[in-house]
């Protein structure tokens, strides 16, 4: 069967790859999906059911190199041999986010950043949904963008996009782009150069037009440096906790309110469902995006005050004998854990550790000496954490299972304390992913 669109190969068969395959088939491409690893059973079933050809455990290079277009999973690095060969032959390689963008006609709010992007994405979606808009949520969370475009199109899309997804975007131009902040993360994918990682985040604005909008944190050093390096075409709006902002948002410390000044009428918000300094930033970003889409002030206020916390992100689990347990398993880097420790009002028993991505823990030391009474190091290799904080706390122990971690933390904690799982590390030494780690934490707490 010939295809008017030609051959397309989708590399990787996770949510992003399968979504791209569904869209490609609908558009009339001859689709081939190739995954060097094993394909999850439900995705393999879905591809079979739709009559989409696929292979797993290998790459049929000869066939892939004949493709007119390649859609690459964000997990595949540029250094992969097959990608190098495709580049040598000057094949077009794009991300699933780019592919989805080229075939839709909605209004897009896209959010990236090292921390807070999932919260800002979910908050923005929550506000737009409460305003009665036809809005989809996806990208790096939930459904892939391409899948929504193919099967469940919307007038508005709120997308979380990672730097890996942005690396293969060229024409992707959201109406509103947001960079929450930029702190060292995933540097192994960027030649261990911070400026490469920053450049990757700023790709979110590369194709935006003059009538689009760019929202950024005016207190974030790396973002501010980026503003000097890259050409900013869209209207730029800052949010800040440290100084007043004319065309954006800031925090009025006297009135203890967020002030949105993004349009002619400023508005104040004093009731936030999500507590902590980082969530004040997240609420500002979501509030600004909503105002730019002409959402009523009342809807924004209500939505920011009734939003439920996300699973695995400073998620309250339960209280046992006056000890509060909080699941912050999504804190896979030092900066996320910094925010978590900073927002604690009680004495903390801290469960930390996992796969170290070249972490510098020293920035946490002042917070540890102020807030943390005991540390439980969870992981295969936690010597670095031990060495860093040994002198800051009276109690520190090493464990290799979540059950041991929760039981040790419970022993160390007294009534009125909080047990905080905020690992500052990736989870792959003992767990499938951060969700698995968070779920095991919650199961063990409930079993106490």
TrEMBL record:
One Gene Ontology MF term: ATP binding
Query: What Enzyme Commission number(s) appear in the record?
Result: 6.3.2.9
- UniProt GO cellular component terms: cytoplasm
Q: Does the keyword Chaperone apply?
A: no
Domain Mur ligase central residue range list: 111-288
Which ranges carry the Mur ligase C-terminal domain? 312-425
Q: Where in the cell is it found?
A: Cytoplasm
| Keyword Transmembrane helix (UniProt) | no
Catalytic reaction annotation: UDP-N-acetyl-alpha-D-muramoyl-L-alanine + D-glutamate + ATP = UDP-N-acetyl-alpha-D-muramoyl-L-alanyl-D-glutamate + ADP + phosphate + H(+)
* UniProt-annotated binding residues for ATP: 113-119
Q: What class of enzyme is it?
A: ligase
Single GO biological process annotation from the record: cell division
For this chain, the family text in UniProt reads:
Belongs to the MurCDEF family.
Tell me the HAMAP family matching this sequence.
MurD (MF_00639)
Identification of the protein by name = UDP-N-acetylmuramoylalanine--D-glutamate ligase
* Originating organism: Phaeocystidibacter luteus
Gene name per UniProt: murD
């Amino acid at each position: 069967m010939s295809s008017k669109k030609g051959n397309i190969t989708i590399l990787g068969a996770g949510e992003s790859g399968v979504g791209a395959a569904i869209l490609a088939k609908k558009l009339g491409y001859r689709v081939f999906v190739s995954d060097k690893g094993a394909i999850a059973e439900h995705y393999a079933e879905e591809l079979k059911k739709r009559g989409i050809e696929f292979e797993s455990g290998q790459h049929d290079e000869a066939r892939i190199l004949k493709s007119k277009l390649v859609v690459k999973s964000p997990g595949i690095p540029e250094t992969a041999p097959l990608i190098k060969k495709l580049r040598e032959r000057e094949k077009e390689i794009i991300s699933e986010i780019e592919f989805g963008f080229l075939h839709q006609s909605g209004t897009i709010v896209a959010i990236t950043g090292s921390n807070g992007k999932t919260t800002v994405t979910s908050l923005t979606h929550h506000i737009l949904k409460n305003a009665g808009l036809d809005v989809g949520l996806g990208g790096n969370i939930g459904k892939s963008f391409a899948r929504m475009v193919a099967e469940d199109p919307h007038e508005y899309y709120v997308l979380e996009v990672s730097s890996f997804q942005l690396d293969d975007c060229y024409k992707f131009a959201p109406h509103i782009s947001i960079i929450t902040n930029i702190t060292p993360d995933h540097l192994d994918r960027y030649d261990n150069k911070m400026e490469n990682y920053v450049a990757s985040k700023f790709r979110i604005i590369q194709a935006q037009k003059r009538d689009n909008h760019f929202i950024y944190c005016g207190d974030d050093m790396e973002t501010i440096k980026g503003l000097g390096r890259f050409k900013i075409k869209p209207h730029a709006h800052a949010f800040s906790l440290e100084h007043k902002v004319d065309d954006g948002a800031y925090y009025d410390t006297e009135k203890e309110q967020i002030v949105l000044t993004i349009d002619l009428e400023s508005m104040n918000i004093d009731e936030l469902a999500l507590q902590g300094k980082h969530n004040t930033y997240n609420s500002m970003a979501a509030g600004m995006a909503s105002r730019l889409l002409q959402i009523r002030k009342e809807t924004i206020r209500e939505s920011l005050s009734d939003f439920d916390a996300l699973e695995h992100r400073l998620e309250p689990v339960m209280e046992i004998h006056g000890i509060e347990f909080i699941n912050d398993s999504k804190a896979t880097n030092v900066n996320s854990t910094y925010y978590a420790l900073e927002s604690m009002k009680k004495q903390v028993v801290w469960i930390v550790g996992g796969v170290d991505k070249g972490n510098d823990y020293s920035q946490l030391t002042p917070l540890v000496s102020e807030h943390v009474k005991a540390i439980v190091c969870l992981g295969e290799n936690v010597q670095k954490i031990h060495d860093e904080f040994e002198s800051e706390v009276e109690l520190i122990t090493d464990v290799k299972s979540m059950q041991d971690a929760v039981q040790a933390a419970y022993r160390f904690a007294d009534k009125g304390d909080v047990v905080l799982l905020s690992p500052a590390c990736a989870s792959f030494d003992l767990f499938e992913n951060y969700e698995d780690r968070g779920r095991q934490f919650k199961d063990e707490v409930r079993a106490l």
